[in-house]
Amino acid sequence: MAEIRIENVTKTFGDFVAVDNASLSIRDQEFAVLLGPSGCGKTTLLRTVAGLGMADEGRITIDGKDVTYLPPRERGIAMVFQSYAIFPHMTVHKNIAFGLKMAKTDTDVTDRRVQEAAEMLHIEDLLDRFPSDMSGGQRQRVAVARAIAMQARVLLMDEPLSNLDALLRLEMRAELKRLLADIGATTIYVTHDQIEALSMGDRIAVMQDGRIQQFEKPIDVYDLPSNRFVGGFIGNPPMNFLRGRIERVGDEVSAFIGELKITPPDEMIELLAPYVGGPIVVGIRAENMETVNHPSDDALGVRVLVVEPLGSQNLLTVRVGDDLIKVATHPTFAVAADDDVWLRFPVDKIRWVDSQTDQAIYPALVPA
Asked: What pLDDT, on the 0 to 100 scale, is given for residue 1?
């Protein structure tokens, strides 16, 4: 068992708070991803779990054992760095065996583990080569093999694919996900690439300014963001946010985007009632709006500013009041810049956001 618990961890550098009261509970054999923009604290939090930097406050446990102030070698971890960190003067075999040698593992056991790890990463034919004779992808495989050979309960990975080109990154992403599922280690994986996070992680912890904003399954982080930051960071294009207002029309509580009236679902009426007469933020994904090329009472007329053909879809940039938003259409939908189109907003796809706090107010979006 290798459950990891991060409890109210804070890490500072002088007056700068890099990690601010972060708490996570990562299950045994779970693949957890720390995701966020540069400088959000994800690597600092990973290094704190690794013991490469000590927490100023809080506690870290692995399988119930308090490791907060233990050195890395006593935590039962292995780590893969962004920069590969393999030794240029050593062969692949010696690089993979390095950690085992430092742990004074028997030679026979070391050779067996090196061979097994090399075969998992498909580099068994490269064991006698030096790093200078290999590609970047092969070097990254060596770094992963070195970590796997340790057979640690916990595997920590700091943006291991960021130095690879796009095609190789795509290949390694799938291969690494399969590999980690096979070895069954509890994994914390740091990335700023949301596609990596969404496609690989069992759960994603989205970070901003040192704080955990949401820790959920990829589909929930994407479709049910806990706040405006998460919705605006996750997705390509990110979630659209439009300014709207809540009004009472007769006995009904209604939302308006411009002059378009939207009737919220029944479960939202009570939650939106306090916003009557005031602003509301309406969040919706580009692919969740329906686009038609004729006027309709249940659709909002907009002018197309830009059309971006992307093969599988066309991405339109349109203006709604003072807001520019992205709309995805089928590639066969005939539209050009300066055309008028009409947008429908399915109420089950709308995410309601408090305009003052930026927190989601849809019931399903309340963080667990």
From this structure: 63
pTM above 0.85, yes or no: yes
* Structure-token match 């080109």, residue found: 165
Domain that holds residue 12: 4-233
Name 322's Cβ contacts closer than 8 Å, sequence gap at least 6.
Answer: 243
Report which of residues 157 and 183 the model is more confident about: 157
The answer on 204 and 247 residing in a single domain is: no
**Integer Cα distance of 144 and 247 in angstroms:** 57
Query: 190 and 81 in one domain?
Result: yes
* Edge-first strand listing for the sheet containing 4-13: 16-26, 4-13, 57-62, 65-66
Nearest to 152 by CA among 141, 164, 161, 144: 144
The answer to whether 314 touches 335, Cβ cutoff 8 Å, is yes
221 and 339 housed in the same domain: no
- Any idea what DSSP says for residue 239? P
Out of 54-68, 122-136, 281-295, 339-353, least confident range = 122-136
Six token digits for residue 179: 């590999």
Cα 239 from Cα 232, distance rounded (Å): 5
